[in-house]
Amino acid sequence: MMTQSRIRSGTFDPNAPSGISGWLVLPLLGLIFSFILTCHNIWMGFTTLSFEEWQLLFQLYPWYCLYVAASLTGGFVGLALMIHVARLFFRYDERTPAWFITYLAYVAIIGAVEAVILYHYAQVFDEPSLIENEPKDTIRGFIACLIWIPYFLFSKRVKNTFTRSAG
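Now predict its structure.
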């Protein structure tokens, strides 16, 4: 139950929908699924090649290794963002919509940058399997932005749910 001292004045409407239910469940489920998928991708990034294979790859293609390191770093930043957004989500914090929108924008931008880089290396390595999921993944990130950013900006449920101040 929310206490009046922690609720922003004039923001809670008892007649409007509130709580993590309805359509608001979907972004939360997406956040949880993305967390699991990102952990899996980071693990695969570390374990796909042996140490000797990494050394050889670094000697032959140092820029590709830099891309892999940057991609893994971006994955860790994404995990940190997901944890922070989930923490705010479950605390009904008023900053949740802004942080969720930031997370969505981060995912879309990182996805687009990775797609461009992977298209380049697919040609360098003559390996089309590097990009077999890229168009779908990149488009999915932008579609998520198109759906959820307006929802988090204009939804009565969002405005009525995330009312607790940070203090």
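Helices lie at 25-47, 51-60, 62-90, 96-124, 134-154, 156-161.
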